[in-house]
Write a structure and sequence with these properties.
With 167 residues, the protein is mostly helical. 72% of the residues lie in helices and 7% in strands. The chain has one domain. The chain has a two-stranded antiparallel ribbon with strand order 1-2. Helix 1 packs antiparallel against helix 2 and helix 1 runs antiparallel to helix 4. It is globular, with a radius of gyration of 16 Å.
């Protein structure tokens, strides 16, 4: 199995498990969240090489993912900063409600940012862009009613940018 697809499977599985574990109390939820970010990031740092590719067919489209020298550099930045921000998020979200929802969207955001960097076709790029838009929007509006106006503005700008890319 390709390391690229394995990283995405671990991110997605970790996001789902973190969301399902939101009912848990104590440190187990935070450990699961950090492991869901840490394991694929370590896998990326140790097993990804420039030139690695993965492709498959689905719904009549040929999806292609790969690592170029430029995408590798930016993926290092996204993965490293994503891991550091995850560590900070655990302390920042300590006494908040529904943290599983926030952690789920955080993991999806990191996964989709890496997916954008690894995409070698427009369909994959657009799918990952939409996942990033929705999950980051949900992280913005997570804080409550006070930030919903800002969240809607963010979503509109992101959607306009995404659809402008398709033109």
């Amino acid at each position: 199995m390709s390391t690229i697809i394995l990283i995405f499977i671990i991110f997605l599985g970790g996001a789902i498990l973190t969301f399902l574990a939101s009912a848990l109390k104590g440190i187990l939820k935070e450990v699961l969240f950090l492991a869901s970010v840490f394991v694929p990031v370590v896998l990326f740092f140790t097993n990804i090489s420039i030139g690695q590719t993965f492709s498959f067919q689905a719904a009549g489209f040929a999806f292609q993912w790969g690592i170029t020298p430029l995408s590798y550099v930016f993926a290092l930045i996204v993965a490293g900063l994503g891991l550091m921000a995850a560590i900070y998020a655990v302390s920042a979200m300590r006494n908040k409600e529904n943290t599983g929802f926030f952690y789920f969207n955080y993991i999806l955001t990191i996964m989709s940012m890496l997916g954008i960097l690894f995409s070698r076709d427009l369909v994959s790029f657009f799918i990952f862009w939409e996942i990033m838009t929705w999950s980051s929007y949900l992280m913005v509006v997570y804080q409550g009613k006070d930030v919903q106006t800002v969240g809607i503005k963010y979503f509109i700008f992101s959607a306009v940018g995404a659809y402008a890319m398709l033109m």
